[in-house]
Amino acid sequence: MQWSQEEEESAKKKAAENSLVKVQWEDQDKYEREASKYWNEFYKTHKNNFFKDRNWLFLEFPEILPEEKRQELRREERSSEHRKINSTNSFSHKNEMFDEGEKYWKKNYRGGSTAVQGCVYNKNQAETLSENPQGKNCGEELDRLESFPGSDATYRILEVGCGAGNSVFPILEVLCNTPGTFLYCCDFASGAVELVKSHSSYNSAWCSAFVHDVCDDALPYPFPDEILDVILLVFVLSTIHPDRMQGVVNRLAKLLKPGGMLLFRDYGRYDTAQLRFKKGHCLSENFYVRGDGTRVYFFTKDEVWNMFNLAGLTEVQNLVDRRLQVNRKKKVKMQRVWIQSKFQKPLLSLHNPEETTKRHPYK
Predict the structure, then answer these.
(1) Known SUPFAM superfamilies for this protein (predicted)?
(2) How far apart are CA 332 and CA 247, in angstroms?
(3) How confident is residue 339, by pLDDT bands cut at 50, 70 and 90?
(4) What is the pLDDT of residues 301-328, one digit of tens each?
């Protein structure tokens, strides 16, 4: 949906009003230092019952899947478009597309599963390393490459901020029937990672869940840089202090292989969730703390473009997704705003963050 100028101005006014009273500095410091504690308490309270499984992921982000599976999704989408060709209501049509995406997921991937990982990824790397006359530590490097989880996969995905697994398990339903694929997932709330590992669908043959603080640059990942085909960053970056976001994006970009994709979806500026905050919950501009101590930031697409561009990634998609959600039971309308983006690592990395001269596409 599109907002009118009056609606836009009204939203700006509400955000300005609820930002007048800031959280005290000592409390802001506490929310930063104890961020993992508040998220652990969140998952201890709600377990895996708070968020719904994101079965829409394959519709919005078909890049999650290897090319063969993407083609299956495209065929299914074309078929559903053909069946709905006479629809005249664009809003209901969008909902139908989401329904079709969920039907596709259930139809194709709800069946039995087998743990197949396929080709050995490190074979060519091993040959290169062993034939390298200048590599004094080839043996050690080869051992390191072959020892990490998912080392024999050819298509690797990382979900950052996996929570209780609401993206993990819909993705795993696909991966367990797709040879050569492997999923990594991490969260800095240990309670969330335990929920993922204790789930009946979790299997270390095609998934590795681990505790990780993406804000800690010195903390190593359990796999080498430049091996990931896809990074999924959905409603995660908004939980991080704005001053630390760029460092997080820079580090994640290093994990992508050339041509790899980073898929992003998060809260947009003036979303209903932002406008509902009362005075005294604002930490800084467009950054708030909820009653349970967890935090949230509301982005513009310009901010998102700047962050990923500075990290050396190229825009594939960057849009504002505005939707009208209606709770018919409570007779409440909510104007939701999200930013959805796709950024790709160049095949030939010639990027120098200190010499960025690329012109902003929105200016």
Answers:
(1) S-adenosyl-L-methionine-dependent methyltransferases
(2) 39
(3) very high
(4) 999 999 999 999 999 999 999 998 887 7
**Furthest-apart CA atoms within the chain: distance in Å:** 72
Single-letter amino acid code for the residue at 57: L
Angle, in degrees to the nearest 10, between helices 90-109 and 67-83: 130
Nearest to 64 by CA among 227, 193, 223, 183: 183
What is the residue-wise DSSP string for 224-291?
-SS-EEEEEEES-GGGS-HHHHHHHHHHHHHHEEEEEEEEEEEEBTT-HHHHTPPTT-EEETTEEE-T
Q: What span, in angstroms and rounded, lies between the C-alpha atoms of 196 and 176? A: 16
Task: Look at residue 157 and give its three-state secondary structure.
Answer: strand
Backbone phi, then psi, for 45, in 5-degree steps?
-75, -50
Q: Measure the CA–CA gap between 295 and 267, rounded to whole angstroms.
A: 12
Rounded CA-CA distance 138/291 in Å is 53
How far apart are alpha carbons 260 and 186 in whole angstroms? 19
Lowest mean pLDDT among 78-87, 242-251, 275-284, 348-357: 348-357
All domains of the chain in start order, with CATH: 12-72+154-345 (3.40.50.150)
Q: Which residues are within 8 A (CB) of 136 and not within 5 positions of it... i.e. 6 or more apart?
A: none
Per DSSP, the three-state class of 342 is: strand
Of all residues in the chain, what percent carry a pLDDT higher than 90? Answer: 53
